[in-house]
Amino acid sequence: MATNQRNLRTCPNGHNYYKSSECPTCPICAAAKKPKEGFLSQFSAPARRALEGIGVKTVKQLAKHSQAEIMQLHGMGPASLPKLKKALEEEGLAFRKK
């Protein structure tokens, strides 16, 4: 039996959306929360939520973590790494060494 069937859901804000995964995030609410500018605006919603989940909202906070720690986060894909490194370099920072 296929388990990736799309199910109609309604978020607490009343938005109707279809999801095939167990992820409870409403895509309409997620799009509304996306920053228009700044460091986190460059990332997809899963990567942004992963960073915010560990308290990273600025490049300075990112520099307190190692590259390995960040890449192990659920939602952080390989496409995010060049953006992370560029953001750090622009601020004269780097990932924390192990």
Structure description:
- The structure is a single chain.
- The chain contains five helices and two strands.
- By secondary structure, the protein is mainly alpha-helical.
- Strands 1-2 form a two-stranded antiparallel sheet.
- Strand 1 and strand 2 (16-19) form a beta hairpin.
- The longest helix has 11 residues, at 80-90.
What Rg is obtained from the alpha carbons, in whole angstroms?
A: 16 Å
Mean pLDDT: 90
Helical proportion, percent range? 25-40%
Number of helices: 5
Number of domains: 2
Q: Please give the number of β-strands.
A: 2
Q: How does the helix and strand content classify structurally?
A: mainly alpha
What's the architecture of the largest domain, going by CATH? Orthogonal Bundle
Question: Which homologous superfamily in CATH is the superfamily of the largest domain?
Answer: 5' to 3' exonuclease, C-terminal subdomain
Q: Termini separation (Å)?
A: 45 Å
Task: Summarize the biggest pleated sheet.
Answer: 2 strands, antiparallel
**Named CATH topology of the largest domain:** DNA polymerase, domain 1
The string of secondary-structure elements, in order, is EEHHHHH
CATH class of the largest domain: Mainly Alpha
Oligomer: single chain
